[in-house]
Amino acid sequence: MEHLNELDKELLNILQTDFPLDSEPFKELAEQLNTSEEEILERTKAMKDSGLIRQLSAIFDTKSLGYKSSLVAMKIPEAEIDAKAAIINEHPGVSHNYKRDHEYNLWFTIAVPPGETIEEHVNTLAEKVSAEDTLILPTIKMFKIGVKFDVTGKEEATAKEKKTHGHKHRKNIEPLTDAEIAVVRELQKDLPITGRPFLPAAETLNITEEELLNIAKDFQDKGIMRRFAAVLRHRKAGFTANAMGVWQAPEEKIDELGQQMASFKAVSHCYQRPSYPNWPYNLFTMVHAKTLEEAQEILKTMSEETGLTNYTYLVSTVEYKKERVQYFV
To answer: Residue 200 falls within a domain, yes or no?
Structure first.
């Protein structure tokens, strides 16, 4: 992060949340930041080339596309975990896969297309890797989703959001048309860093930029697309620690507690998930921080403010896979 100037940091903050759906988005960003389009293009390219920006593309809502998804935890013998993780990674619907410091030591997310079930895919994987135990942990309620790192360093680690980033799903999920699916395929690709970055996709689809951007805005209005934004490599952004805080929350208070947890800016994801006799935790919060000590302090503050004391946290020790789900491929 040492090579980044203040413009870079302000630009990164905007790219994570408010990338303009405009035919000349980098010109619009330049106006916001009181600089030139050339400067914005140059700085964005440099941050892509360095690996700080992982991808700039549409972030779609899995459920609204008709896909089913879930978090899955497995118990794998420690000596076998690397090899077994590689088998899990072969599944095209597995987008994230981590080793965590817990008896349930392999954690991954999986999405399956319309007409198929999570259970059949997970059961097949569990058999392939001879998992000692498996927990299927789908989202019951989402309180927040959206990774945004304050790279400017202006905010306290325990800072709060003015409003949480809950997401509305489409009430009536209807299958997308072939034309809409074609747009999804293009918008999920990494955006080129050029003056007219949406033009190649529009040409591929044989429509105008205006038509493409109108469809993208319509997707956003309907909840099909959460946002169009950059995803950072959090370690390169200075956030070298993350902890998945899991909490045992009373069912009758879970909505209130979920909103409280989601209000912390350091929390990127907050979900209600099912509990099991051997897994009593039903509220999940992903916390990102610059150090593990800072993450622990954030979790402690969350515990004090909510009154939830039965919790633990799991730290990622190995990243086996991290990429966007590729829909309709």
So the answer is: yes
CA torsion 157→162→165→166, rounded to 10°?
120
pLDDT of residue 166: 45
Whether the predicted pLDDT of 266 surpasses 50: yes
CA distances from 284 to 32, 203, 213 (A): 36, 42, 35
The enclosing H or E element of 171 equals none
Length, in residues, of the chain:
329
Q: What is the count of structural domains for the chain?
A: 1
Instruction: Report yes or no on 15 lying in a domain.
Output: yes
Q: Is 273 inside any structural domain?
A: no
Q: Is residue 234 part of a domain?
A: no
Helices (H), 175-283: 178-187, 199-205, 209-222, 254-262
Q: Which two tokens stand for residue 270?
A: 């907050």
Reported pTM: 0.80
pLDDT mean over 104-108: 98
Active site includes 169? no
Return the structure tokens found at 235. 């370690």
Which residue range forms the structural domain that includes residue 215?
A: 6-58+191-229
Percentage of the chain lying above the pLDDT 90 cut: 75
What pLDDT, in 10s, does the model give residues 147-182? Answer: 565 555 555 656 666 654 444 444 556 789 999 999
**Catalytic-labelled residue, pool 3, 96, 102, 121:** 96
The CATH number for 26's domain is 1.10.10.2890
Strand order in the sheet with 94-100: 133-137, 68-75, 106-112, 94-100, 311-322, 241-247, 283-289, 267-272, 141-145
3-state SS class at 274: coil
Burial class (CB in 10 A: 0-12, 13-18, 19+), 178: exposed
